[in-house]
Every structure is written in structure tokens, then in C-alpha cells.
Amino acid sequence: MEEVDWEDDIFDLDRGEDLYRAKMRGMNLVGADLNDANLTEADLRDTNLDHANLGRAYLTHANLAGASLRGTNLACADLDGTSLDGVTWSMGPEGTQWPGGLAETLRARSREIEPGVWRAAGDIPRNAS
Predict the structure, then answer these.
(1) 42: phi then psi, degrees, rounded to nearest 5
(2) Where are the beta strands (DSSP E) in 6-120?
(3) CA distance readout (Å), 3 to 19, 22, 39, 91
(4) Model confidence over 105-129: pLDDT tens digits?
(5) Stretch (H or E) spanning 102
(6) How far is residue 33's CA from residue 58's CA, in Å, rounded to a whole number?
(7) Are strands 110-114 and 88-90 parallel, antiparallel or unpaired?
(8) How deeply is 12 buried, as exposed, middle or buried, from its count of CB atoms within 10 A (0-12, 13-18, 19+)?
(9) What is the pTM for the complete model shown?
């Protein structure tokens, strides 16, 4: 499959989009609906995914290092092998939704940088989903 390289932040994303190996580093995807999207091996480093819906996205071996995930839905996402080093995420009623026991793992390996907002350390297990 051909690699996708986005040149700007303006494009139409649909649920279930095939973004295999997409290069989306540093993009603004606030509120994007990427539920069921294939983001396997995608480069999402430093991307703003605040309040995005990635509920059932395939993020296997994707790189989310440094991404902002405040209020993001990852509840049923496949995060096997995904880099979560340095991600910013939130707790609370409108907080980030993590699959399985990942919330506890991240909480233990993160520090609060402002009330309700946390930054993950650089050693999050890659098979934590």
C-alpha cells in the first residue's frame, strides 16, 4: 500500500478511513472522527487529537509520541505496539478514554502538568492495550 503524506490540515476524514502509514506529524485534528480508521504504523507524533473519536481505530505500531489526547476517545482502539511516550491526556468526566487497564498504567507513569492534565513518561509499555 502507498504511503500517504498530508501537506496541510485541510482534508475530508470519514469514519473508517484507510490511513495506513499516513504521515500526519504535527497536524491539528481536534475533534476528528476517526472511529474505525486504519492508522496502522501512522506517524502521529506531536499531533493535536484533542476530543477526537478514535474509539475503535486501528493504531497498531502507530507513533503517538508527544501527541495531545485531551478528551480523546480511545476506549476500544487497538494500541498494540503504539508509542505513547510523552502524550498529553486528561482525567475527569470529559477526560481521555483508554482501553482496558491502560488508564491505570498511564496514570502511574505520568505526571500532572496542570489540574486534570497529565503527560506520560517515555517508557510506556507498547502492548498496554
Answers:
(1) -70, 145
(2) 68-69, 88-90, 110-114, 117-120
(3) 8, 6, 11, 34
(4) 899 999 999 999 999 987 665 554 4
(5) helix 102-108
(6) 13
(7) unpaired
(8) exposed
(9) 0.85
Q: What is each CA distance from 43 to 4, 21, 66, 112, in whole angstroms?
A: 10, 7, 11, 25
Report the SS3 class of residue 108.
helix
What are the φ/ψ torsions at residue 68 (nearest 5 degrees)? -100, 120
> d(Cα 29, Cα 118) in Å, to the nearest integer?
19
Sheet order of strands, 117-120 included: 68-69, 88-90, 117-120, 110-114
**For residues 88 and 111, what is the distance between their CA atoms, to the nearest angstrom?**
10
**All three cell numbers of 52:** 477526537
Whose cell is 480511545? That residue is: 74
d(CA 107, CA 34): 24
Quick one: cell of 66?
Answer: 508527544
Instruction: State how far the alpha carbon of 41 is from the alpha carbons of 27, 28, 45, 92, 118, in Å.
Output: 16, 19, 11, 29, 24
503524506: which residue's cell? 5
pLDDT in tens, 79-96: 999 999 999 999 999 999
